[in-house]
């Protein structure tokens, strides 16, 4: 078989993606992820009653900025990995920098706290449930983002699946911030990160199965 014949055989039945397909698919999936996580948070956990007061404090916005920056990085990575042969690229700084900043803040918080306050700063009141709460809120986004990427052409399905999971979980964590009473960077550095990594791990496992094309 000649090379031209082989190329023609392999390309049979393949239709090129229309311009703007990625933007349309993510334009659908991201609102579903955001609205789904927010609605679940409000229905299952409820908005914290002192939100109006705490929203006036810088620490609340710092807490919100942490998963928001991760969501931006995960979105960049997911969009790039949905293309054939692309790499994470510019998504890495957006994903790693906020984690490093929060870890540094956590170390400072723990070191400067009184000895009896160090463990409470790390565990808070909800360490047992926090990661699983984030996992629950990530479910709508997990499904929606995987749908968006499935319709494109990822060639690294495991890495793309992990990025999908991280995007869904970071959006879920932004929504969870409006319920969660924990205001210590030491808490976020462990339990928020664990909550965001769980869907990312599931995405890495399921990516090769769900993102095949």
TrEMBL record:
TM segment ranges: 26-44, 64-82, 94-114, 134-152, 159-178, 190-211
Protein name, as recorded: Anti-sigma F factor
Keyword list, A-Z: Membrane, Plasmid, Transmembrane, Transmembrane helix
ATP-binding is among the record's keywords: no
UniProt xrefs under InterPro entries: NrsF
Organism: Paraburkholderia largidicola
Keyword Membrane on entry: yes
Any Pfam family the entry gives: NrsF
């Amino acid at each position: 078989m000649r090379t031209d014949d082989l190329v023609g055989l392999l390309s049979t039945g393949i239709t090129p993606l229309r311009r703007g397909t990625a933007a349309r698919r993510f334009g659908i999936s991201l609102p579903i992820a955001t609205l789904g996580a927010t609605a679940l948070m409000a229905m299952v956990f409820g908005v914290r009653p002192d939100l109006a007061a705490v929203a006036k404090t810088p620490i609340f916005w710092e807490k919100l900025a942490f998963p928001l920056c991760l969501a931006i990085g995960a979105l960049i990575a997911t969009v790039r990995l949905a293309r054939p042969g692309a790499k994470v690229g510019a998504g890495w700084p957006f994903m790693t920098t906020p984690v490093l900043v929060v870890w540094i803040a956590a170390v400072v918080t723990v070191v400067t706290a009184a000895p009896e306050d160090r463990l409470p700063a790390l565990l808070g009141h909800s360490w047992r449930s926090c990661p699983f709460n984030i996992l629950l809120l990530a479910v709508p986004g997990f499904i929606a983002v995987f749908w968006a990427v499935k319709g494109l052409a990822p060639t690294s399905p495991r890495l793309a699946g992990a990025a999908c999971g991280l995007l869904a979980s970071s959006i879920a964590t932004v929504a969870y911030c409006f319920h969660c009473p924990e205001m210590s960077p030491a808490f976020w550095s462990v339990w928020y990160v664990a909550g965001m990594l769980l869907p990312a791990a599931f995405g890495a496992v399921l990516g090769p199965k769900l993102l095949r094309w």
